[in-house]
From TrEMBL:
Name of the protein described by the UniProt record: Citrate synthase
GO biological process: tricarboxylic acid cycle
Record GO terms (molecular function): citrate synthase activity
Biological or metabolic pathway of the protein: Carbohydrate metabolism; tricarboxylic acid cycle; isocitrate from oxaloacetate: step 1/2
Length: 427
């Protein structure tokens, strides 16, 4: 382990700090004792150059456009494994050994998917049309009162029960939040259906459970729809120390109930600069309206005096094509060929936006490529997912990552309460 020196030019004092050799990516400087030894602290708005934790969960190489979960490339996981397999990988450190173990884990989640009847009564307290993200955050907070013993977990069995319980229940909660918002009766889980199929069933079916009698009178749930949504969940399972994950860790650092920390993460994800971006992308594609208008909107995006911002392009970390966006683009084309019809009008506009932007020097110089939000809204719409559920879909996908990150923090004996400093400029 090497060191790096910091010299105070005012006093000529020299301070040495250890260099941490990460297993992947650039090295880091251990500035944890910077204030104690040098009497100064670093200023890093947005924490873009600051690591607040050590982690083994996911890794992003922004220059290469690479994302790994526990060392596995996300593209390979999407191609070879189910979302529930990836859940097991994130919270339990390993993928299922065989098909039997995979089915057993999925079946456990199905049995845990039912909600406490007391929680169901909560939904009626929200007004008609309430955004599901607001209801969802509140519902997860209530889980902390129903399963209060998770506040003091002692061993791996406790950790796994906490994580598996909320991973299992979150699709049910999302479905109930939506159905309550539109005044539809709740549909309870069916343990004969897989994790992803169950979610679609709870969204669409009538109380008698006849799959062809859905809310919109559409056809039965197909294996192609299940597979597509499964892939979307997997692509969202974890993504380093993003705003919502950092929120979960920060809140968990106070010793609060884990579900309260996750509820805070849900609130953070709701923002249009984070998980709510896919809703904004779809709205913007409708605003553009026609492929002939694309150039005009691209010009607006380049005009520093115009507040218009091109949604679905650019990422805080990626300086290359987001690998998740590549998978989604291919998935969109594949589904369209196999019978799940995309909105061709919006799809053509999106492809034209990408084509023009990726050939424009303004976007090339700034490394602005499509991100995970750019095509996800078009696919979710084709899967008959209501727009207001786009971000809750993100919550379902991200839940195993939040649980893994939270457990990683709790298990770390050296973890401290989060307490950044501030550059005070007041009187």
């Amino acid at each position: 382990m090497g060191t790096i020196s910091l010299i105070n030019n005012e006093t000529n004092e020299k301070f040495d700090f250890n260099i941490i050799n990460c297993t992947r990516g650039p090295k880091a400087v251990d500035f944890s004792k910077l204030f104690e030894t040098a009497g100064i602290f670093s200023y890093d708005p947005g924490y873009g150059s600051t690591a607040g934790c050590e982690s083994t969960i996911s890794y992003i190489d922004g220059k290469k456009g690479e994302l790994l979960y526990k060392g596995h490339k996300v593209e390979e996981l999407v191609a070879k494994y189910k979302f529930t397999d990836v859940c097991k990988l994130l919270i339990n450190e390993e993928l299922p050994k065989d098909e039997k173990e995979s089915k057993e884990f999925d079946l456990e989640l199905r049995h845990r998917s039912f909600l406490h009847e007391g929680l169901i009564n909560l939904f009626s307290a929200f007004p008609d049309g309430a955004h599901p993200m607001a209801t969802l955050s509140s519902g997860v907070s209530v889980l902390s009162t129903l399963y209060f013993d998770h506040k003091d977990m002692e061993d791996e069995d406790d950790y796994q029960t906490m994580a598996r319980r909320i991973i299992a229940k979150i699709p049910t909660m999302v479905a109930f939040c939506y159905r309550n918002s539109v005044g539809a009766p709740f549909i309870y889980p069916d343990i004969q259906r897989s994790y992803v199929e169950n979610f679609l069933y709870m969204l669409r079916a009538y109380p008698h459970g006849k799959l062809k009698q859905t809310i919109k009178g559409t056809e039965e749930i197909t294996s192609l729809e299940i597979e597509a949504l499964d892939k979307i969940f997997t692509l969202h399972a974890d993504h380093g120390q993003n705003a919502s994950t950092t929120t979960v860790r920060n809140v968990a650092s106070t010793g609060v109930h884990p579900y309260a920390a996750i509820a805070a993460g849900i609130s953070a994800l709701w923002g249009p600069a984070h998980g709510g971006a896919n809703e904004k992308v779809l709205k913007q594609l409708n605003e553009i309206g026609d492929v002939k208008n694309v150039d005009k909107f691209i010009d607006r995006a380049k005009d520093k005096n115009d507040p218009f911002r091109l949604m679905g392009f650019g990422h805080r970390v990626y300086k290359n094509y987001d690998p998740r966006a590549k998978v989604l683009k291919n998935l969109k084309d594949e589904l369209d060929k196999k019978g799940i019809r995309m909105d061709h009008h919006l799809s053509e506009i999106a492809q034209k936006v990408e084509e023009v932007a990726l050939s424009d020097e303004y976007f090339i110089e700034r490394n602005l490529y499509p991100n995970v939000d750019f095509y996800s809204g078009i696919i979710l719409t084709a899967l008959k997912i209501p727009t207001q559920l786009f971000t809750p879909i993100f919550v379902i996908g991200r839940m195993p990552g939040w649980c893994a990150q939270l457990l990683e923090h709790i298990k770390n004996p050296h973890a401290r309460i989060t307490r950044p400093r501030q550059v005070y400029l007041g009187k």
